[in-house]
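Structure in, sequence out. Go:
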């Protein structure tokens, strides 16, 4: 295994949600009611999950986002600080925090509805946000906050030599101006299909394929394929976020190592229920790699 040489500074700009998770043997079809087997409230949100994953996987992370002034806010903030993610740029706005209604079936597959709440209020970046982005090695974003804010952050990152990783999820149309400022795109196979040729100008594209692992293509035509370790799947929620955060933390070691590190982290995240609660530590990822 490659030795860790340094700690990349990573600014994660994105969402933070309280996940309301119902487990059931089978997800209902439209119009149907099914009985559940359990319920949990777990801090989540693609931004927060990726921030925690990047920090636990070896990065030094600052989170840029917003919670509301409701009962969920303190626990959402604590989920970040418990994992030593910097929250100086986490703002509190009037109204509800983001929430996600999640149904997980017996096979560990999920369906998710996100109601943005405070995340939708991330319409502007403060001077302090911009300074964090400019000083970071990596800016990591998703699409659960307003697209214009992500575009402004990527523009500022590019102007200041900060590498931009974009996980364009939930998938939507991304303007060419934003793609032009993205160095690394991380997408699942469905997103890759939907985005198609939009991904062509991006220098580095990583496609996750669930249990089939991940593939990488570089601008110079370099291709890599990384199988996924075999694990007992309990819940896939947050596995993609864990992969993406760990990839950001390992990116400075090159795509091959980053794919190995992230693939192991993502697989481990499927072995426990919940998003932030299933994200492995650096030690757990290392141990899984050495026992492989
Ligand atoms: O990617 C999983 C996440 O998507 C959940 O934690 C949920 O909050 C939604 O943002």
């Amino acid at each position: 295994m490659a030795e860790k040489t340094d700690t990349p500074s990573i600014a994660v700009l994105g969402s933070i949600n309280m996940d309301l998770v119902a487990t059931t043997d089978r997800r209902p079809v439209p119009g149907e009611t099914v009985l559940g087997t359990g319920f949990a409230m777990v801090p989540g949100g693609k931004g927060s999950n990726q921030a925690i994953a990047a920090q636990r996987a070896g990065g030094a992370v600052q989170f840029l986002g917003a919670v509301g002034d409701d009962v969920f806010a303190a626990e959402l903030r604590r989920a970040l600080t418990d994992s030593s993610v910097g929250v100086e740029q986490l703002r509190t706005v009037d109204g509800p925090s983001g929430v996600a209604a999640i149904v997980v079936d017996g096979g560990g597959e999920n369906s998710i509805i996100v109601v943005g709440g405070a995340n939708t209020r991330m319409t502007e970046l403060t001077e302090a946000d911009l300074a964090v982005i400019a000083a970071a090695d990596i800016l990591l974003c998703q699409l659960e906050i307003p697209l214009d804010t992500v575009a402004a952050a990527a523009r500022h990152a590019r102007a200041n030599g900060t590498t931009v990783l974009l996980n364009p999820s939930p998938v939507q149309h991304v303007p060419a101006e934003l793609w032009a400022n993205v160095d690394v795109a991380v997408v699942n196979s469905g997103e890759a299909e939907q985005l198609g040729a939009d991904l062509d100008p991006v220098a580095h594209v990583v496609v996750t394929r669930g249990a089939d692992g991940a593939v990488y293509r570089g601008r110079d035509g370099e291709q890599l394929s990384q199988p996924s370790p075999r694990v007992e799947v309990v819940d896939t929620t947050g596995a993609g976020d864990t992969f993406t955060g760990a990839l950001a933390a390992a990116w400075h070691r090159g795509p091959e190592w980053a794919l190995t590190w992230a693939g192991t982290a993502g697989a481990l995240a499927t072995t426990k229920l919940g998003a932030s609660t299933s994200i492995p530590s650096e030690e757990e990822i290392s141990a899984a790699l050495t026992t492989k």
